[in-house]
Amino acid sequence: MRYVDPQTLDQLPGTRLEENDTFRFRCHPVVACFNRCCRNLNLFLYPYDVLRLKKRLGVSSDHFLEHFVDVVLRDASFFPEVLLRMSADAEKTCPFLTPAGCSVYPDRPDACRTFPLEQGVLFDAAKNEARMVTFFRPPDFCMGQHEEKTWTPKTWELDQEAAVYHRMTARWAELKRLFQQDPWGAEGPAGPRAKMAFMALYNLDRFREFIFQSSFLTRYAVKPVIQKKIRKDDTALLKFSLEWVGFFVWGLRSDSLRPR
Ligand code: SF4
Ligand code: SF4
């Protein structure tokens, strides 16, 4: 997911697709390029990707973050990016790729489901409005784009069971957009508030411990029904985390909690 400047929208690579536009694509194990697209990637992981992958692998958030990702804070950026760490082989293969294909297929990340499309967030500062834009952007080596089967962005989303990913990524994108301005002041993006926000979004197991084993619930009133859900359900916890970070960093209104 990238942020798209309305001024440069028409100069971006790929073909922009509106809702009813179609593209040709089919991927199958007999294509000459099979699995080539799962190598040497800058594969950004969003909070919901991490949630699904750590569950799939049966590991804790701590373990996943330590062994499977690189956390990168770019210059002039105010929140880190999380990238899936490629294997150390010459081709920099995705760690989840096997000769038979993707070993985490039912829980593969948003970017893998969306491919060969890419989504961007178009932000109109004058109207303070954000909306998603879609591009068809397969790499030249991808033979799937020469197949006959056609899709619209919506039918592709359905086929890839990507709707829940897109909804969760869109929620994250709303916050990520706010991080384009520095919210941290003197303590900077490596300071304690930034670390707390990162934990809430990417390390759900730790954040759950923090909620239930620290003074969190004496400082914030959280509805009992929400407490019950977030004790067990990671997706409910992530939705809560997104709200809490909005409140914690920018004072945004939350329906789930209020300060005591
Ligand atoms: S490059 Fe395209 S056609 Fe080839 S395996 Fe990847 S998605 Fe399928
Ligand atoms: S997660 Fe699966 S689909 Fe995505 S790059 Fe890795 S092997 Fe390919």
- The helix count comes to 10
Indicate the low-confidence ranges by residue numbers.
Answer: none
Radius of gyration over all CA atoms, rounded:
19 Å
Total strands: the figure is 12
The secondary-structure class comes to alpha+beta
Query: What form results from the Cα inertia axes?
Result: globular
Q: Which sequence of strands runs across the widest sheet? A: 1-8-9-2
Outline the structure in words.
It is a single chain. The protein is of the alpha+beta class. 38% of the residues lie in helices and 17% in strands. The strands form 5 sheets. The chain has a 4-stranded mixed sheet, with helices on one face. It has a two-stranded antiparallel ribbon with strand order 3-10. It has a two-stranded antiparallel sheet with strand order 4-5. Strand 8 (117-124) and strand 9 form a beta hairpin. Helix 1 crosses helix 2 (61-68), helix 6 (192-202) runs antiparallel to helix 10 (234-250) and helix 9 (224-232) crosses helix 10. It is globular. The chain binds iron/sulfur cluster (SF4) (2 copies).
Topology summary:
Layout: E1 2-4, E2 15-17, E3 23-24, H1 47-57, H2 61-68, E4 69-72, E5 81-84, E6 97-98, E7 101-102, H3 110-114, E8 117-124, E9 129-136, E10 150-151, H4 153-159, H5 163-178, H6 192-202, H7 204-213, H8 216-219, E11 220-222, H9 224-232, H10 234-250, E12 257-259
Parallel strand pairs: 1-8
Antiparallel strand pairs: 2-9, 3-10, 4-5, 6-7, 8-9, 11-12
